[in-house]
Records
---
Amino acid sequence: MPRKQYLSDFQAVAEQTQIVGILNIRPSDESGQFHFDLQLERDGPSYEITVLVSDISDYPTEHAYYLMGEDSMPKHMAATFERLSLSHAGQTLKELLQSMSDTLRSLDLEGDTPMPDSQPEDYEDYEDGEDDDSIDDFDEAAFDTVPTKVSSHSSTTAIVPATPRFQSRIRADLMLAKSAGFKIGCHGGLLDGLSCYVSVSCRIAKLGVSEEAMQAWQVNANDYLILVMFFPNGYRSVEDLRMMDTVQQRRSVKFSVGISHSNYKPTLDEAVKAFNPVSVEDQAKEEAARASQGQSAFRGFESCFISRPLNQLLNDRLLRLVFYREVGLSWSGAEQFYNDHQGMQYGFSEEVADDKYMYPEPDSTAYPALVTQDHIGDTRRMRDVSFPLAAMQFLLRHFVRCTEFCLVCHCKLDTDLEAIKPYVCEKPLCLYQYMSLGFGPSIEHEIVTQPNVVDLLISLCHLAASSHGKLEVFPVGLGLQVPPIWPLEADYPGAAGSRASKDKSAEFPPRPTGYNAKFNRATLELLFDSNDKCPVRAGDWIVFPKSDKSETDLHCRIGSTNYFPTVSVSEPIPSYSDIEKIRALTEQKASQTKQRKPETPAPTPSFESATFYLYDLNFDEANDVWKRAVIIQLLSVLPTVMEMRKYIVETSKELSSWVNRISPAAAGLLRWIIASSRACIFQVDDIDSAEGKKVTKAENRIHGMPGWMQFRFAMGAPDKERRFLQEAKKSAEKLKPKFPTIFAWHGSMLHNWHSIIREGLHYNYVASGRAFGDGVYMSPDFHTSVGYSNQYRSHPANALNLAWPQTRLNISSIVSLQEVVNAPQQFRSRSPHFVVQHIDWVQTRYLFVKCFNPEIKLDESKTAPIDVFHQDPTLTPKGETGARIVIPASAIPRSRKTDDVLSRNAPKLVATPLTSSFASSFGNVFGTAGTSADPITLDEAKKSKAVGTSADPIDLDIDMDDGASIATADEDREIFKEDSPPPCEPILPQGKGKSKASMTDFAPGTLDVSSLPILAPPSYATPGASKRLLSDFRTLVTVQDVTPLHELGWYINPDPDLMTNLFQWIVELHSFDPTLPLAKDMKAQKITSVVLELRFGKDFPHTPPFVRVIRPRFLGFNQGGGGHVTLGGAICMELLTNTGWTAVSSLESVLLQVRMAMSSTDPRPARLVPSSQNMDYGIGEAVEAYRRACQVHGWKMPPDLLETTQDAQASRF
């Protein structure tokens, strides 16, 4: 075992090894860490050195060491430590310490390397017994100008030579990621070819995730999502990785995903711990130490809610998926191919020929461009791909869309269910791993922070299970060993009622075997016949059916069997699951609290005959009827939520440690109920953690609903809120209502709410009829909606017949409050009910629960809140009292608020057709041109880098370095600085690159822009298209900056003063093959470039750009010309029509293919007209030529072509 070998090696070096300068080797309090004293001279100072070993499970082949010294250590020694800290991968502890001793003692006091004869006398004495080969290799690798080797153990993963070309590649890769909108950080010897950490990050606010999803995921808008890449043997590019086998690839790069509340990158210590996780015990010690020093909880780099599955996905699959994409697969196609061929031997190139994998990525306008952009798809050659950028884009794909993928197998979920929390697919193995491996939420955290929510979830599950078939989804795959129902079924509503069914599926399994023994209730002992074999084991759970001696079933855990035939058991737990007991318990609860009966004296110890049954039945093998009955039984023996909460708070332990009170089966069921709830529910009525008293958050309560417990409620995919707002915007632009949305009630019977919370509101099933058509039924009148949930309202005690016995809430009715797009005239029906057929038009905001418990006192304010969300006065919902409800401003996501929301004054918007009321309600969330949330105007970008809100910032600065974020550290800025241009393939200065004179005669930046038809931004400019174009523009500029001009062949001026309209690009093609007739004609006429105009329509990127030549003029095909340039100057290519265009086509590939077509000599080469006839093309003749070409070839023209060219024709030269 690696850990055992590590411990053995440590004991050996600590007790037996004598290494010069290494003294007092001792363990640390933390696992995988130790200390020693470094004393290089006999009478010299000593320094304490700390060594942290990463990945002990990989020792002694793939681990790494991290060395930290005292602050008082000499600078040259500290610098050596920093350089060597990450360079000992694959060495044993003895080799590490010996190499350190030799390396550090070879330096003199000034840090220089002395002559050999200046070494201490005792050095030669020690060398005699040691093998010098590994030491010599290490010295050479450590101090050579270009490190080449880590150790004798890692020849296949050598340190990368730090050549200028290697450093240029690092800068190019990281600059691409930076230009795409991400923050870059690093630790270690990145540019020196040594082990290093590279981080790529962005703020959560940039991802287009709703505030409800952020709450459900426990992240904040200002948090950074960080991808940390660890390169143990030096940075590796895509080209490096593709030359390795799978084992080498995994050794060369590792991934870790986390969240930081304070910085855009982890500290070095945090990065180390990310790949060498701290044990629970060590973490508890750190937290206790901070608490003792009065420090607040540390909020640096830490795991997020799905870090573990994301880490598994990235480390296991990313590299394979990246190389699948080389043949043209999208991310979706590559993942489907991977999932279809796991564990199979196949010929990859042959298999991907199957069209089912060759499909584009589904386009989504609900997310910003930062999330949807595809660097690999936009890059022509795989070797030019920035690996950090590609990895980060893949991470974002699975982070923001985490609810669309299984958290265990990572397959796309085959369901239309939209959820706000991620979950697993229907495979039993995935559910088992999700629960057993800790991928799900912490039930302890939920119980402590939201006890009312947990009580609500358990109660609704119990109600559904008790309501004859309403519970249809079960915790299958968890391996639950549960008690039998045969001797107990009369006590459980779900079992007794269904037993009468004639359906064969209602039949119960064979009667289980009961065991006879004598039970002493006072001493908690079972006495068996001495001739019998012990039928139980320590830790087993058993149940005694109720009898004359016991009013209820009794469940307990087997303690010790060491003294068989006497077996100890835990205190029996009564199961109050029968109807009469529930009612009696409820009626007596208040009196029992106030007047406690005197304790009954302990009975005289005596053994009485008893029969018990083991928890030995497999839950998965039962039919649905039996499963429901078992769920009722297991829930009936759970403690109350407040009892569980008290245990967690007082012991600081997980519920699984409460072994004598909660059975493994009940704990697994409880975890499933909480984890499988994919809605976001937050209790408005909270519980004070210190005193356990009711505290009402009055500012979040909706006024006008006295006596109802309130919960904030959100359901749907993470982009559901954005889709809802987009639909509201569309409707408001068309109908121009004074208020963009309205509110309405929805009621449903209690047993339906378990599925509603899991699946959301939809109309897939009929519960109460559909007299007014398909859709979600709602009403502005409370009493109408509550009528559909009043099954138990007139007699609340009847609800308790099916209630969870331990509930504190005692729910009698539930209704929800929805926000709806204000378009009643477009509803399926508007009278007597609102019937909304579009799911994206409905967004649930609140859940109202009526509790039949006199102990619950809601501290409700009699006055309405001051900060309110204004509603349409003609459609404001009425509450239970008949008065209109008042909704606090806090009920609406913060991203929709401006300073004008409360006063109802319209903000100053630019070019918006919306009414002031609409703008006031929705603020800047829709990205209207000129608003601060989604600015598109280019001239404004030059005035302020940090334009926009934190919810959806769009920064037009070329750096796009998250202007409102934390400043980039100096060490990270140094990455992008070059001391001198490298001798090979120089990186060109931005926008001013020029290759050798012999390579090209093109001079960038010399085009007379004033002679070109520059247009103002079109009226159809939309935020979505603008973001995509801005992203593509930056990508092209980045590629242009790092590619020699003569190789690139095209040029676009990056000057923002010239790029005033993102929907019109001017591009120059140049540096054609000098042997081409076109190049000869250009040289004869002293023309250095072909000037193109690219125009983008309103439907881009779903439609192609219109590409034409402005100058010079080409000979038409009938005149002997070619090069795919029509008589009117339009480019004749299928790619530039709707027939050949795809939304994933990159503009870099467009320019490349246009240039290749223009250079083609088949069937004829391109030629220029004589200089005397060389005049610019007009837009009109280009459009007509384009239309003719499409008609001749049968290509489909873009539907937005007319609108695009109309704007153009209106501004002819």
---
Amino acid sequence: MDDENKIDDENNDYKIEIIKDKPNDIDNDKLHKLHNGNPILNIQVTPNEKYFITCGRDGSIFGWNVENVNEDGRLRLEFEIYLNVTILNNKILYGSIFSDNKKAVTFGHEGLLNAYDMNNNSLQKIELDLNYSDSNECSFNLNDELISYYKGSRDNKGIIFVYSTQTNDNKWDYKRIYRVPEYTKVYEGFKIISVTKYNKLYYMISKETIYEFDLITEKTKKIWVIDEEIRSTTFNVKIVSNENLVGLKIGIKIIIYSIKEEIPIVSLDIKKNVDQLRTIMKSANLCSRFFPLLFSLFSYETNNNFWNSLVENFWIKCIDHLKQNDKLVRLPIEYFLMDIRVTNEYAFAILDVGIWRIDLNKMISSINSLFNDEIEDENSIFLHNPYMDDISKLFQEVKSKLPSESATSKSIELIRGSRKWAFTSIIYKDYETIGLRISEDSVFNPEVYCERYDKFKSNDDKFQLDNDKSNLDDKLLYGIKISKEGDIIVLTQIGLLIYHYDQNNEVLSLIYYYYMKLSEITHLQYYEKVFSIDLPLPNATSYESCDGWISYVEKNIDNKEIFLKYGIGLLTFAIKRHKVKLIGEIYDKCMEYFKNDFSNKIPLSIITSMMPLLNQHYPEYIEKYSSDTTMIIPYYYTFSFEYYPSSGNSHLFSFKYSQIDNLSRSLLYRRYQLSLDKLKKNHKNVAIIFNFIQYLLILLILPIYFVTFYILSKFHFFNNMTKNEIYSTLYFKVVGNFSNYNSNTPMLIFLNPYIKFVNYPKDYKWYKELIKPQPSPFVETINENIYKSWSGEALINFKWNTYGKYYYAVIWILFMAYLGCFTAAATIPQQYIDKDVHKRLLITSIILGFIHLSFEIRQIIYDFGKWIRDFWNMFDVIAYVLPIITSIIWLRESDIDIIPLLSFSCLFLDIKFLLFFRALEYFGVYFAIIISVAETIISFLVVLFIIIVSFAHAFYILLIPRTQFSFAEPPINNNDQNNPWNIVNSYYQVLENGNIGSSPYIIQQPNENTNMFIDFRTAIFAMYKFLTGDSSAVSNWPYTTNPSLSILIVLFSLLIVVYLMNLLIGLLNNAIEKKNNRVSYLIQKAEILAEIELFYLLPLQRRWNKWFPEVIYYYANADKTREKIKELVKNDEWNNDIFSESRKSLLKELNIEDDTDKSIDEDTLQKSLAEMKENLLKKFNEDVTTKSVDKNTLQKTLEEMKKSLLKELNNENVIDK
């Protein structure tokens, strides 16, 4: 070996030999013993399947070109590398990975990655930018980029780097960075399982759920929820994938997940389902799809009965078959699983004379000829649903007949074995009937085994016939298929039905019904797509139209699989049909199933998904659910107190499952950090001076600095991956100290029971969503019982902190721009503002006003009834419309007096500005009180207004002038005492003799306010003034000569001013006491968030999993939790019956004694009752001396006291130690 092919790397001698154009000359003796007879430690195929790599224990690495084979199918060796095994740890070779452009990465000392370039006849080490120790997983992707996962420590977050292998100064720079969740108790089970060449990251959380994260699209998918039976054991997880499928091996389970269809399509138990595996391998269709994944899942597992059965029954037979056709030279005696690799195109067998490449398509062809007779129905075992193949064929058959009239039939008969299957359809006035009869295939008196008739109520006018018993045009049947299991699939004009035939008991059951309206071929094409993947869940009409289907689901409510699948539809039906008993049964069953398996949250989602309907018809169930699910502890959570994490999490701080963050925006800032690191390393004094300058700059811009870095950190434009840089280090240190001011406060973690409560429908059309968006259960359910609990408050906190406060701030800023423009145009005197500037301000006000008004119009279109009931919406519309109208008038007609419009416009704009404070808790509580109190007394105010109008009418009739008059000229000889000229003040002249003249010398001219009862409108206003204490409007008449006026004044004063106004004050006081709580504020905040979600977020944003997760958790202060539990116990709201074990654990951890299960001492109770009875008798005898004691009264009193005593004892059963 030449010296130039040896390199020294960290005192380790590596030598490389590049074999160029030599494979053709290499003799078979050398190939006979691969790696000089040493065991093979690692076998790999590069991402794009260019090279097949083998690594030997002696430190040798052989590279085989996949496309370069000799005549007998063996791969030709292209290069070989030798490492010095005297200083090399063999474990390094286990994890070595290779790329298609001849790059290699190995794990070095303490998990450091070593990268090498194997091109140009040399082994050259490549430096990795930011190479951490303790790297856990790495892989090359299809673009020859290196994906590396650095696990991190307990207190640090793991980092995922994506390196470009385009060498720059003998160095790989990272181009993307991702950060996994920080280590907290809820993420204790966070584990990276696999990083694939398809830029997919697979990870597991708390031994519960496996997720897929796409590094390109940054989308997360839930792949699989691990069975409770497996979670209770020690198990390993292995994942492999290709472009279409994901293969998982979880303990004894094998799952194949379809990426396109997003559903598991194969689920096998390796201890029980060997026959099913053999069926897969015998099928050309299934084998071509699953063969590569299954072989990869069992790599390096040589002692596995499941896989040994596959090798013996499948692999060897295929090899023998190919050998007979001269595809192989010889067949080795033994096969080990690690000696086989399969890609999408080839199978590679490592034999004793070399590596053979076998064309996978030829192998599939071999399968067809070997096992064709054994395969009956490949889809009936595990793919999708056993009925999907038959349903697909049924749709195709029906499509071929349409639009011919022969496509539908009134009756169909099938013969299977010795039995005849007869189907009939009859249409009546209000319903259709489909009958099914199974009988003996005999001409004479055939025996009827069983029969069934199902009625289907239809709202389709096509089926509404005039005659009660008419069976005209009753051809409902399209076609029928009988599955392998004997189930009957029926396609009709009113839907698809599946019947199950129990031959042992001769019983027919309707096990599936999906309502459809099939009258045209276009309808059939649509529903064919609906049934293309799997059986869809029955729609709402299915439950409403078929009693047989409802009966089936009700009877199988104890079947967990059926209940979880159809529970939402059944509960919807029960609520709409007001089946109270069924609602209770479904609720109890949901709680039972969740109690038995805390990891399965589907039972809770059945209830939360239907909360809008429950809130409308049976709100008591929301209160019950809120009480029953208070403080649910995650099943994997162990009680060792958590503390406030560094991110500033606090009491009722919500979070969802782990989220991987993309930090790639911080690449520029990261390079700046690296430059400072180099400066500090090479020029220490210069670095000190530079740091001093940075500190001075921070002091100069201190307020702006924190705001700017908060925004930058929020959107990941910089990170805290290094502590050697001043700007980010100082920011994170200050923020960390501020958030950890109470870091010793113990915390608990609770599950928020409102599962899928915030999720929006996945299927939507964006243009419809912009006009009338589909709501979520959160938006439709505004119920105070939700927000009485910590779960509801935590939910609001999560939404507000995630997106709510940012959108609210933007809306507020936009409104302040609108307010500022119009206020400036209306307030600044004309002589101090330029006309062009004034015009621009008005035009800007109009534009901004229309922007705000457009959102109000969308709310009106969405739900006018709900919009009109919201008190704040009135202020919103007036605040937007009035300034717009005023601005338009001002621009067009400058001569019109618009001062009143300006005045009211500014008033409503200022009120609207004030209303923005209602989202802030410090002010929002008072706004909530104002509105809730107003809603409480609105009916009283209406009554009060009617009474005032009635009195105004009475005063108007009494005090209206009876003669005509003019305010300009006094009347002549007018004795009408209601005439304004007779009411105004008159001044008389004092004569020289001291007498007063008989005629007025000066008369004050009257106006409209002299007698306010001239007009009915001013009469009402006069009554309002009287109500406020100003009685001047009725003080111009003498009371002694007007007894009617005096009576009305007294009545008004007593009834309105004294009685009703004091009653109003009392009602206000009671309403304030009732509504003076945080619940009203939280409801108000929930309404604000609902408005933001529906009308400000884009349709795509409403489907972001980061903002609208299915499951949410929250922190709770341990001390506050103790106080809350004691409050709930005191109010008789603490229920220990449902989740007894979990709640007992919580009470124990919080050092609260649980006496709920202790029975009351019956002797003590009886003794107390006896003493009470004796005392009562004594008291009755003392008080009632003339007659004996009423025994019935005594017995009734004793019973009441007994109940009271029992309740008191029960309330005190949970006490603090």
---
Amino acid sequence: MDKESSVITEGREDLLDRAWEDALACSARFEETDALADIDGEIEALQRGLQIMPETHEELPWWLSDLGSSLYRRFERTGNLLDLDEAISAGQRAMQLNQEDHEALPVWTNNLRASFQARFESSGNLGDLDEAISFGRRAVQLAPEGHADLPIQVSIVGSLYQSRYDRTGDLEDLAEAISFGQRAVQLTLEGDANLPVRLYTDLAEAISLVQGALQLAPEDDEDLPIWLSNLGSLFHFRFERAGNVQDLSEAISFVQRAVRLTPEGHATLPTTLNNLGSQFQARFERTGNLADLAEAISVGQRAVRLTPEDHTDLPTRLSNLGALFYSRFQRTGDLSDLDEAISFGQQAVQLSPGGHRTLPSSLNNLASSFVSRFERTGNLEDLTESLSFAQRAVQLAPEGDAALPILLNSVGSSFRSRFVRTGNLQDIAEAITFVQRAVQLTPEGHEDLPSWLSNLGLLFQSRFERTETLGDLAEALAFAHRALELTPEGHAALPKRRYELGNSMYTWSMENDDSHKLETSLSHFKAAAISDTGPPRDRLDAAKNWAHLRHRHFPQSNDALTAFDAAIGLVALVAGLEQTIQLRYIQLQGLSGLPLEAASVACALQRPDKALEWLEQGRCLVWGQLSNLRTPLDDLRAHSEDLAQSVMEVSRRLETAGSTQKTSRTDMLLSEKISLEDEARTHLNLAQQWHDLLTTVRNIPGFETFLKPSPFSALIQYLPESGFIVVINVHENRCDAIALSAGQDRPLHVPLPTFSLEKANKYRDDLSNQLRSRQLRDRGRDEIGVLRGLWNEVVKPILDALNVSVDRSPGMVPSTRIWWCPTGPLSFLPIHAAGRYEATEYESIHDYVVSSYTPTVSALTDRVRNSRSIDQVASGLFLTSQPNAPGASPIAGTTREVRAIHEAAIKSGARVEKLEGDATTIEKCLENMESYTNVHLACHASQNAANPLQSRFLFHKGTLDLAIIIQKNLKNADLAFLSACQTSTGEEKLSDEAVHLAAGMLAAGYRRVVGTMWSIGDRHAPEVAHDFYQYLWRHGDPASGSGFDGTNSAYALHHAIGELRLRLKDNSERSLLAWIPYVHFGY
């Protein structure tokens, strides 16, 4: 070597030494700080050295291997696939330069295994998995016997074979996975805390070994969270094989501990959280417990929040989170959950590169969400998107992918939805083809097979309903039967499978006149209805069929009563306290007819007492729940002060949680969404605490029926001392009135044979049309008007049955009082104004009785039972007028109305306060509602049928929402006069939930409410209010001094309306519309 070459060589070696020292320093710092800048520095130093290192340099393989390891470590932090590609390239080059007997060959081989495995897990490319298995097997072969790392390497190879089996279903891969798993167990050293076993033939032994090893591991062992997570995976794996839910609970427990021990910001935490979410989701799918789904969403959100934006796992975690929201939407029907599912799904797809391993799954999840939104909204664009996403997912899935059946099933679902919309038989044929293929590709024993079979049965059932081809019905029956057979006992889907088989079997019985199949179908509906597991909605669907069909085919059988008992009881579970009030109303839409049908069947079987019980239990459910949460606890407190206090505290918190108006929006920050989910989980926990407290209380002798639905015998214990409560049930089968009065231990049943549901709907529509045109429609001699029809077909037959006669004493109010409790479309009709108002033929309910309304019998009897004397300190009247609320038309008459009442109140010596316009803030109004027993609100009102708690009164300075009023402790509330428009107008979809302001004020604590069914004239309202209060003051108790008592408010309103009718002088359409709107609710 010449002098110049020697100098060059020495200079190169100096540079190499300096690069190596820099790399070592950065590596050491990285181990201490975990800072990306240090790993970047290490990689830069190694690359700098390699650029000047000759190909023949003896240390070249070492440098290449170290570079590969450093790039791999950076990939673990960033998820950058380019680093992984370069790591593999460097590792492969090192292997090519290496000798077969090199001491480092086992390490380098194992490093390449890890890199190929990571790339497979990121891309899903089976070629990478094949390479990982190849290098993993070679690393095991090269490892010296007795090496401490050999068990973990053997176990990893087993896990790789398991992954390939999951993708391909090749039984040889499963055999290899088990073989390597067994060898890993055998190689594990006693007391080794790093037991890495994942696959065993004897899982019980494996779990025992891991648990024993973990007991020896110190609590501060940095690897402890990993092994806890692995142990959780073992339990999860055993659950998937054996189906024991307790294994899932154990898995969750261990992984929760792993999460607690993992420092915030640790690279493995998002993965551990993701695994925990999967385990909660699996338990939800098995048991149907919404608390598990809420936990899964919570940890899923946290996993997404902790995953860097450029990490390759972010699309997968976003898609998983979207799928969780979709599952909750399917259970609750909350559209905000569906919006979240679509939002997260779209983000996942947008962030997934074309070859990302989870892109087909993300597309599939998004397809499911879009088809569900189509089914809710009918927007065909959503259906088109769904089909496009589902078909693309199938196209992108590798041949032999174990997830392919899931994707095929989704395509089938999209085609089925299009068939339902279009009726095109080609669509249902396509759907059947795709789901049949999903079934064919799913091995026996797979947990998804019952679902695919169930869906296939539904598809054949749908085609039969269109074509009436008995072959399709036979297929539907066969697939439904097999799906049920494969569904394990205790599974959340079991009621649904029984319901589906019952439907197919019932259809078969009707087509073939098969009485045996009919009885068998009813037995399946019954079994589903009384199941202890499964979503309440699925059980309710079965119970409705059981009850309805039992009565249809066996009309004299009392078994129908048992069936309807089960169905009505399930309604309260469908709209349970774990949901917000808004969600409960969503759940109740479409269920209004159930208690009415049940009552009609009870009346047909001469059981009006049972009819009344069901109407009470199944109607006005949400207001009833609120009443239960506010029930007096005096008796319980006398038994146990602590238990009563617990009940009171949980009830208050549960009421607040249910009244929340907060809903998630897709444009919210993730941190805001996490906060909302925390509140939702707290709500679920409160509902469980409430359930547990009720169980505790009911175990106490004497409290067995605490807050249970009241039997008839309890309902009649606290009837008003005089007058009648008349419940009118309207159903397509029949119409009946049930009258109650104090001192009578049996209800008076009054069939209404000339009235019908069809007439009730017609009268309601006629009245709506008349109101729109501001006049009653013309009535010919042969055409019965709304008010006349109500009189002839409903009111007069009831009055006759009650022996109530006309009471027309001049200037006097009738002495008989009736509280009307109508159902269905009759709730929207003015029973209190029924009569014949023609010039030649006059007769009116106004001359017979004083009318009030009550949403339910219990709403009235609770007031009687909890009757209390007026607090003389608070007794008085608060008045406010709001003539110019923003966005509403001026109502100048409200100022005159309130001033006149205020002046008259002062003259009568009553305690009164008046605030007008801007002087009334929302806060000041609420203070006065607490300080005064009676309130008069002269203003505009706005009803929100979708969310009744957002119904409001419009003030100059904001809105007074019903939700805010209800949250106040209005313990002295007596009378509320709502001199506002449409304060007792209901909602057709919730006709039996009394979703109007008048009922809301009753729920808030007021004993009696004056409201209006439609807009009232600014001209007449002040006069009606004046006459109303004058009557109250004239007939008040002189001993009350400056107090104010609303006890006679129903009589006062009757008097005021009578005075208005005298001033109007006739019964013209305009005159009728002026006085009919006024109604009285409550005691």
